[in-house]
Design goal:
Elements: H1 4-40, H2 43-57, E1 76-81, H3 91-100, E2 106-111, H4 113-121, E3 126-130, H5 138-153, E4 160-167, E5 173-181, H6 186-196, H7 216-290
Parallel strand pairs: 1-2, 1-4, 2-3
Antiparallel strand pairs: 4-5
């Protein structure tokens, strides 16, 4: 049995660990709430964009716009959204499994140090590495989206897809690969956009005669890049909410485990101390009988 001094040292170490994990849990919970609030704040924008695109959809030929025209997929364009730091459970590991399943030629852009390290370790074709602050400024994400769109329009990549942890609730973050371009079915996209906006997916058909300035085609060409920026920005916001949620759960689990270990060590310490006291009493009694 270890000595009481060794057990006291372990108890002190576990207490310090529990204090740190509790503090990290509280910080992650606070950041998660803020990230969720920012992600939900984008719903009115999504609804407005759905209404505008719905007004244009019935008046244009989808095949005229490069964002809407389907083409042969030779090289996929992937944006991998990971974390900069660890201690967030299996979040990054699940994303890496999705990347490992990609067998076709792909060029990958990555957000986060963990993703960059994984791609370098597995020797995959990493085109660019970006960093995004915890507050997720739109200007930082816009640079990433414009880089991906430029690669798409130049024909370097034939799709734009985002691999990120989709936030479902505090305990569940689902690693998925979400396509962004080409948007070959505008009507289906409008339904999906309405759904994410928190309104009826079908929506009401707008039969009014609308005058577009300068014309409907120009409006659509100007609107679609905003769609790409908004979608990628929303995915990054959800990824940040998933990161803070996963870290909060991981730190809570660590804190609970530390509490359990602390209870076991306290019990072991009491047993060791009781055994030492009993041994001293026996030694005193033996000495008195010998006298």
């Amino acid at each position: 049995m270890p000595s009481t001094r060794d057990i006291r040292r372990r108890i002190k170490s576990v207490k310090n660990t529990r204090q740190i994990t509790k503090a990290m849990e509280l910080v992650a919970a606070s950041k998660m709430k803020k990230a969720q609030a920012v992600a939900l704040a984008g719903r009115p924008y999504a609804q407005l964009m759905a209404d505008m695109l719905a007004a244009l959809a019935s008046r244009l030929d989808d095949s005229e716009n490069p964002f809407l025209r389907r083409r042969e997929i030779k090289t996929r364009g992937i944006l991998l959204v990971t974390t900069d730091k660890g201690l967030c459970g299996p979040l990054n590991g699940n994303l890496f499994k999705v990347v490992a399943e990609i067998k076709t030629p792909a060029k990958i852009c990555v957000i986060g140090r963990k993703g960059a390290q994984f791609l370098a370790r597995t020797k995959r074709d990493m085109v660019a590495d970006f960093q995004v602050h915890d507050r997720v400024p739109f200007n930082e994400v816009k640079v990433i989206a414009e880089f991906m769109v430029k690669q798409y329009l130049e024909g370097v990549i034939d799709t734009i897809e985002v691999i990120y942890p989709r936030f479902k609730n505090t305990l569940i973050q689902e690693a998925i690969c979400q396509p962004v371009l080409p948007l070959d079915n505008l009507c289906e996209f409008i339904k999906e956009l309405r759904k994410h906006g928190g309104t009826d997916a079908a929506g009401a058909a707008d039969t009014r005669e609308i005058l577009f300035e300068p014309d409907a085609k120009t409006v659509l060409n100007a609107l679609l890049p905003f769609y790409v920026n908004r979608q990628i920005y929303q995915f990054v916001l959800l990824a940040k909410a998933s990161e803070h949620s996963a870290r909060m759960v991981a730190m809570k689990t660590a804190k609970d485990n530390a509490t359990k270990i602390l209870g076991d060590l306290t019990l072991e310490y009491n047993k060791a101390r009781q055994a030492a006291i009993t041994q001293e009493i026996l030694e005193i009694a033996a000495a008195s009988f010998a006298a």
